[in-house]
Amino acid sequence: MGDVGNILGSLVVALIIAIIIFLIFREIFCWYWKINVRVKLMEDTLAKLQTIAKKLDKISKKLDGAAAAEEETPAAEASCPSCGKPIPSGSTFCEHCGEKLS
Length: 102
Ligand SMILES: [Zn+2]
Description:
By secondary structure, the chain is mainly alpha-helical. It has one domain. It has 2 helices and 2 strands, in the order ααββ. β1 and β2 form a beta hairpin. The longest helix has 41 residues. The site of zinc ion has 8 residues, from loops.
């Protein structure tokens, strides 16, 4: 029973040492290749790109709205003063209610 306990204890110690060595090497690797600095830079870049993308989206929507308004303006038809329904320009009577148009 004592032997099994010794082996288990040794295994636990070995495991802890392995984890510590792993963490130390990890820190050294991160420092040597500036991995933390790179990650920070990438996060900053991503945040800035997302801001730019949002602004571009807004501008694009505004441009789309302006283009749609420009398209609508010439196509806008006159409406009947009596019933309010759209009537083709140049007609003398409303085709919906028969109102005489000047
Ligand atoms: Zn009408």
